[in-house]
Write a structure and sequence with these properties.
The protein is globular and about 65 Å long. The longest helix is centred in the last third of the chain and has 28 residues. It contains 15 helices and 5 strands. The chain folds into 3 domains: 157 residues, 3-Layer(aba) Sandwich (Trna Endonuclease, Chain: A, domain 1); 51 residues, no CATH class; 135 residues, no CATH class. About 10% of the residues have low confidence. It is α/β, with parallel strands linked by helices and 395 residues long.
């Protein structure tokens, strides 16, 4: 069991965590790249670093993160997922080297994941990376390694509250009960004010019952601060976005959240998905992110979708997705090269098909759009089934 709740982070926040750790442990010169156009570099440095040992090494350093949902849950089997993700990344590395995006191979390539890694898995992942970067030193850091770094940087943990365990929450509740006993004293006011730099309790706050007081603290600190930060990555981290609204619903709190940045990212991703020429089985994330984001907005804040500017952006997003899907229907690809690629294609077609099905079921579209989305979902599902048929015949 790992010390911090890394699985509670989405891929975006895990990427930010690794970038922050890199700056804190290795130096401010570490460049935070990340995002969908990061050239395979979540963080990068050119020069001298005391990594992977305390001795200085000179050259280009590439730091890449791979997040696996629920990797540390009981019974989780994350080896296959992280292996598939690394193989895809290796394909992209080779493309970056071939087309000149990377002018030269790095001297050191570091992979970070929240998933646990046995010695055998570490060797397997390192071997896959060394196949495309034979001259680079390769390091694989799993969730346990990341937690050990975090223990050396407790200030970073406080910047990512999702990492905190039940033990930390119990301590907060213990302090709240203590405040009830001495609520009238001057010392109690000082103690309560130290709970959070962004929450300033009033006299009315102290007159509330303990349960209501805790709810007020959550609403005025956690929900307010979360809404401010979540708006910038609500699209890319759909799990956290939905959890935020479910929490607000459970607490009967009506949050105010600005989704302008999220809509811009959604539109930019859809345009990139249309215009970039990655094969569909190595570029399957955008429809799913779009479906999860739009579905959460429609369910928890439908008034957002009534705004004319938002409707226009949503229309452009759907048009781009449908145009790319239409092009895919008329595309011919070479036969899969082996079992791994066949499975990769089947999984990706299934993922994209499910995303289009989710979109088609939303009550937001004109009849023709709904039919086009449903037809695209059916096409990708058939492509996935075809891959399975090929696999069965070849087997």
């Amino acid at each position: 069991m790992i010390d911090y709740q890394l699985d509670e982070l989405g891929w975006f926040e895990f990427e930010q965590l690794i970038q922050t750790l890199g700056k804190a442990r290795l130096g401010f010169g570490i460049e935070a790249w990340g995002g969908r156009g990061d050239w395979g570099r979540d963080a990068y440095y050119q020069g001298k670093l005391r990594y992977p040992t305390n001795a200085e090494t000179e050259g280009a350093f590439v730091f890449q993160s791979k997040f696996v949902e629920g990797a540390n849950a009981a019974g989780a089997k994350s080896d296959k997922l992280i292996t598939t993700a690394v193989r895809k990344e290796c394909t992209r590395i080779q493309i970056h080297l071939d087309n000149g995006t990377w002018d030269k191979a790095p001297v050191c390539y570091a992979l970070f994941t929240n998933a646990p890694a046995t010695p055998g898995l570490r060797n397997s992942l390192s071997a896959a990376i060394k196949a495309v970067l034979p001259s680079a030193h390769c390091s694989v850091h799993d969730g346990h390694d990341v937690c050990q770094w975090l223990r050396l940087s407790p200030e970073i943990v406080r910047s990512f509250p999702q990492l905190l365990s039940l033990r930390d929450l119990q301590e907060l509740l213990r302090q709240t009960v203590h405040a009830e006993v001495i609520v009238r004293s001057k010392g109690a006011i000082t103690l309560a004010q130290s709970y959070s730099r962004v929450f300033v309790p009033t006299n009315a706050y102290y007159l509330q019952q303990p349960a209501q007081r805790l709810r007020t603290t959550i609403e005025d600190t956690l929900i307010h601060v979360a809404a401010q930060h979540l708006g910038s990555f609500a699209y890319s981290d759909g799990r956290s976005f939905r959890t935020f609204f479910e929490l607000c619903q459970a607490l009967m709190i009506s949050p105010s959240i600005d989704l302008s940045d999220a809509w811009d990212e959604c539109l930019a991703d859809a345009e990139k998905w249309l215009n970039d020429r990655w094969v569909i089985w190595q570029d399957d994330a955008v429809p799913g992110c779009t479906a999860d984001f739009v579905r959460t907005v429609q369910e928890f804040c439908p008034s957002e979708l009534q705004r004319p500017a938002i409707r226009q952006k949503l229309q452009r997003v759907i048009n781009d997705l449908l145009e790319r899907a239409g092009e895919e229907k008329n595309s011919d690809y070479d036969e899969p090269k082996g079992e791994d690629e066949l499975r990769e294609r089947a999984d990706a077609f299934e993922t994209v098909g499910k995303a289009f099905k989710k979109l088609s079921e939303l009550p937001l579209w004109a009849k023709q759009e709904q039919q086009s989305l449903a037809a695209s979902a059916n096409h990708f599902a058939c492509e996935a089934d075809m891959m399975l048929v090929i696999r069965t015949v070849d087997g």
